[in-house]
Inverse folding.
């Protein structure tokens, strides 16, 4: 089995792109975190957190596109003009609750909900392959802030 790193290196080779230090650093940053949801700008900040050799914003953006092309990260359109990325390799299926006040993403998994979706598909003779479920609302923290 090839690792995410092998897949990425192969993808660069196929596109005739060089394996550069910034590209590898971006890859390692994404792979090194569990349950990590981020925007492209978040990643720019995190990649540059611990180093003085800054990676440019455009390099991060372009590298994210490459990572998405080879399915190491998945891009989800959360709202108009707001995309969020998450690691696609090694991640178990889950759905999201998204706070529209602070942007916090809460992951959840409900076996019941999954089963209901399967049976609804079955009723429509539809073969499901994947689904994305985002529930928008207000998180506990923001709800509390509003009350105070
Ligand atoms: Zn689900
Ligand atoms: Zn919130
Ligand atoms: Zn997630």
């Amino acid at each position: 089995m090839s690792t995410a790193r092998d897949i990425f290196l192969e993808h660069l080779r196929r596109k005739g792109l060089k394996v550069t230090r910034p590209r590898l650093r971006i890859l390692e940053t994404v792979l090194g975190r569990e349950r990590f949801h981020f925007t492209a700008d978040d990643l720019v900040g995190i990649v540059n957190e611990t180093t003085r050799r800054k990676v440019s914003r455009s390099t991060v953006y372009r590298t994210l596109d490459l990572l998405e092309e080879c399915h190491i990260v998945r891009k989800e359109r959360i709202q108009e003009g707001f995309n969020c990325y998450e690691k696609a390799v090694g991640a178990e299926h889950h759905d999201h609750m998204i706070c529209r006040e602070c942007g916090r993403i809460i992951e959840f998994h409900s076996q019941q909900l999954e089963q209901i979706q399967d049976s609804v598909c079955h009723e429509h003779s539809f073969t499901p392959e994947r689904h994305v479920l985002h529930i928008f609302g207000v998180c506990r923290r923001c709800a509390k802030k509003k009350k105070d």
